[in-house]
Design brief:
five-stranded parallel beta sheet, binds ligand C2R, 6 helices, 5 strands, 49% helix
């Protein structure tokens, strides 16, 4: 059963959001993938947020670009933690997305990642670290990831 809801505002966000998907899969975390725009599908977004926890999701990763209200509106409709991924935009390089996601009013937090690909990958890792508090297998997968990453960094220095 899916633990993570991976939501994006448009299919055009997928090249970035697939990095989150790949990282979740690599860590053995089941997710469901949805395209739901707060602007274009407001009723669907509200229902998705309201039903997310009762359907068994434990966390939501939401990516959107430009006037990126999606993560904040999901957070407004659920008590699950929402991790926001600002998609890099052509007009403003994703600074628009970042500011739209990060500047939430006090009371409705969104855990905001970096702009673009690194943010998407880190969203999955952050999700894994949160879920890993209650799930030893996921915590072990994160530990293995960190060990491999350290080894790769050490090897790259030796080849330098
Ligand atoms: N920011 C939002 C929302 C939202 O926040 O509800 N819905 C779509 N979008 C964003 O619009 C950008 C362009 O979308 P299109 O490529 O479909 O025109 C995407 O990055 C999407 O996340």
């Amino acid at each position: 059963m899916a633990k993570v809801g991976l939501v994006m505002g448009s299919i055009s966000d997928w090249p970035t959001m697939q990095l989150a998907a790949q990282q979740l899969t690599a860590l053995g975390i089941d997710y469901e993938r949805r395209v739901i725009s707060a602007h274009r599908m407001p009723a669907t977004l509200q229902t998705y947020g309201e039903q997310a926890a009762e359907r068994g999701l434990q966390l939501i990763i939401a990516g959107a670009g430009g006037a990126a209200h999606l993560p904040g509106m999901l957070a407004a409709n659920t008590l699950l933690p929402v991790i926001g991924v600002p998609i890099k935009t052509r007009a403003l390089n994703g600074v628009d997305s970042l500011l739209s996601i990060v500047q939430m009013p006090a009371g409705v937090p969104v855990a905001t990642m970096a702009i673009g690909d690194a943010g998407a990958k880190n969203a999955a890792l952050m999700a894994a670290q949160i879920l890993g508090l209650q799930d030893e297998k996921i915590q072990q997968a994160v530990l293995n990831f960190r060990q491999r990453q350290r080894q790769e960094a050490e090897q790259s220095e030796q080849q330098f």
